[in-house]
Design a protein that fits this description.
- This protein is mainly α and 163 residues long.
- 72% of the residues lie in helices and 0% in strands.
- The chain contains 6 helices and no strands.
- The protein has helices spanning 2-19, 23-43, 47-71, 87-107, 121-130, 134-155.
- The N and C termini lie far apart (57 Å).
Length: 163
């Protein structure tokens, strides 16, 4: 039941991205959709990936909102504007891609399941993607984050020592 609630929420807020009349509202509708997608990962016992998706999307949408406030001509992207361009072409492409994907679901020769799920799906996924390099990639991720923070601090007009 929780899957269907999250699926409806994800699709409805995804549609709202194209229905609302401002960039700010579209940003928060997209955030709601992506949080619902991240929450589905919790349902299949991928807690780490679910939390990662949710946190990453929250930060991404907040950065987008900050840039909208700074750079858009209308205040914070709240003024009404059309979010759709080439409506007929986009609708035709969307319907065609959706029909192709649905046909692929029903026409594909799906293999029978073999074996049982691993005790820790997150670890199994990480090992299948990274193999024995997982620790190296985690350290590199922290190093890249420290580099980004340092770059922002050093690039400010006041400098490192607020002088």
């Amino acid at each position: 039941m929780a899957f269907w609630i999250l699926a409806v929420l994800a699709v409805a807020s995804g549609i709202a991205v194209f229905v609302v009349d401002s960039m700010a509202r579209a940003t928060f509708a997209l955030l709601a959709s992506l949080i619902a997608v991240g929450a589905t990962f919790f349902l299949i016992d991928l807690r780490y990936l679910g939390a990662l998706i949710i946190l990453m999307m929250i930060m991404e949408m907040l950065v987008m909102a900050v840039f909208m406030i700074m750079f858009m001509m209308n205040p914070a992207g709240l003024m009404p504007m059309s979010m759709l361009h080439n409506k007929k072409g986009a609708a035709a492409i969307s319907v065609a891609v959706f029909a192709l994907l649905v046909a692929g679901i029903f026409l594909a020769d799906w293999p029978d399941r073999r074996g049982a799920p691993p005790p820790d799906p997150t670890e199994a996924l990480g090992m299948s993607i990274m193999g024995q390099k997982m620790l190296v990639m985690m350290v590199i991720g922290v190093a890249i984050l420290a580099t980004m923070i340092s770059t922002v601090v050093l690039a400010t007009r006041r400098g490192r020592y607020d002088a």
